[in-house]
Specification:
It contains 12 helices and 10 strands. With 382 residues, it is of the alpha+beta class. It folds into 2 domains: 118 residues, Phosphorylase Kinase, domain 1; 255 residues, Aminoglycoside phosphotransferase (APH), C-terminal lobe (Aminoglycoside 3'-phosphotransferase, Chain: A, domain 2), CATH 3.90.1200. A hairpin with a 6-residue loop joins strand 2 and strand 3. Helix 2 crosses helix 5 and helix 4 packs parallel to helix 9. The N terminus is likely disordered.
Length: 382
């Protein structure tokens, strides 16, 4: 983090002041902006409230979309949908009890301006920080806390999809489909051809059929609860109140096993890799299951849980490969911003190897054999 005072920062601070002044009905002055990172299309700042006549906290976090106001017809539909989903996800979180809230509290937002003002979760470590330290007990504790937080979030939001949809309709000018379902459909339809063309690996019909069947985890008959989807270690902050999640641009309701399997893949929507062994995977899943089994009793049965977990891992690996496969235009090369970041081929190779192990444990020889073939081809190309 670093103190900054550039023109974009000044403009964002001024926009947040105007928004909070409208929201509270009295002048609010924000000072001392600190850049918290963000992304190529967002700016995220910590600010201090110098003039604060109401009950706003001393520090807050401001997130601003950088592509321009959401009313600008030149802005992409994907960016508009991402902001709306994030704003609605925070609105939905505000409706929950504080201990069940998946992330920060939202104090104000402006849909047209692409602006969010959130509570400050502090300077605690992220899960990425914990994994980077490499301390065995610390890593285990961090991953277990992550899994338990996911389970608590799922259990607390299991019956909230109608409320989420209502908030999305109120915020929206049109219907925004689930972005994960949309890209997953494309990945399932195109990945066999990509694997054949770029790696020389054919996909057996039995494997393609199982991957297509795994798409049910994104359907209405799934075990659905709120999901941030992008659960990269950088997006999980360890606070005094437990793990809190960041980045809800893909927020929505999906099958809970998709989140539970995320660390086992591992971390398929980012470049980070922390390989989870069989024993550690079992402990993670059990920690998550202990929180959700009261809502979905069928998950107490291993014969129900583990096939769903394998389907979730399969779907994530296919989706991750569609994003990251060499020569794929869908994701840029990794930036190498910390040692958890792998090369494109290295990240994918680990994910296919993990899928092969999971399929072997689950008794699906076809998926295991295909996964090993893809991993070997990635080894050659890497």
């Amino acid at each position: 983090m670093r103190a900054v005072a550039t023109d974009p920062v000044t403009e964002v601070v001024q926009a947040a002041q105007r928004l909070l002044t409208r929201r509270t009905g009295a002048p609010v002055t924000l000072v001392d902006p600190v850049d918290l990172g963000g992304s190529d299309r967002t700016l995220v700042l910590r600010v201090r409230a110098e003039e604060n006549p109401f009950s706003l906290p001393k520090t807050m976090v401001v997130k601003r979309m950088l592509e321009g106001p959401l009313g600008d017809s030149a802005q992409s539909a994907d960016a508009r949908g991402a902001f709306l989903r994030e704003a609605v996800s925070y609105q939905f979180g505000n409706s929950l009890r504080p201990e069940h809230r998946p992330g920060a509290e939202m104090f104000a937002h402006d849909v047209d301006d692409g602006l969010l003002v959130l509570s400050d979760l502090g300077n605690g470590p992220t899960l990425a920080d914990v994994l980077l330290r490499g301390d065995g007990s610390g890593v285990q504790h961090g991953l277990m806390a992550w899994a338990q937080a996911l389970g608590r979030m799922h259990a607390a939001t299991a019956n909230g999809e109608d409320d989420f949809r209502t908030l999305l309709r109120r915020a929206n000018r049109q219907a925004w489909p689930d972005p994960m379902a949309k890209v997953a459909t494309t990945a399932l339809n195109t990945l066999p051809d990509l694997l054949a063309a770029q790696l020389g690996v054919s996909t057996p019909p039995t494997v393609a059929a199982r991957a297509t069947g795994a798409q049910r985890l994104l359907g209405q008959d799934a075990l659905r609860a709120f999901s941030p989807s992008d659960l990269c270690p950088d997006n999980a902050m360890i606070t005094d109140g437990g793990v809190r999640f960041l980045d809800f641009e893909w927020g929505g309701f999906r099958d809970v096993t998709l989140d539970a399997a995320y660390a086992l893949v591992p971390f398929p929507s980012c470049w980070c890799i922390h390989e989870v062994g069989e024993s550690q995977a079992e402990k993670l899943v059990q920690a998550w299951r202990s929180e959700v089994v009261g809502v979905w009793p069928e998950l107490a049965d291993d014969a129900v849980l583990w096939p769903r977990m394998l389907d979730a891992q399969l779907l994530w690996v296919w989706l991750s490969t569609y994003w990251f496969l060499p020569a794929s235009p869908h994701r840029a090369n990794p930036g190498g911003h910390h040692p958890l970041t792998y090369t494109r081929q290295g990240a994918l190779r680990v994910r296919w190897q993990q899928l092969a192990r999971a399929a072997e444990r689950g008794g699906d020889a076809d998926v295991a054999e295909h996964a090993l073939a893809v991993a070997a081809a990635l080894q050659v190309t890497g």
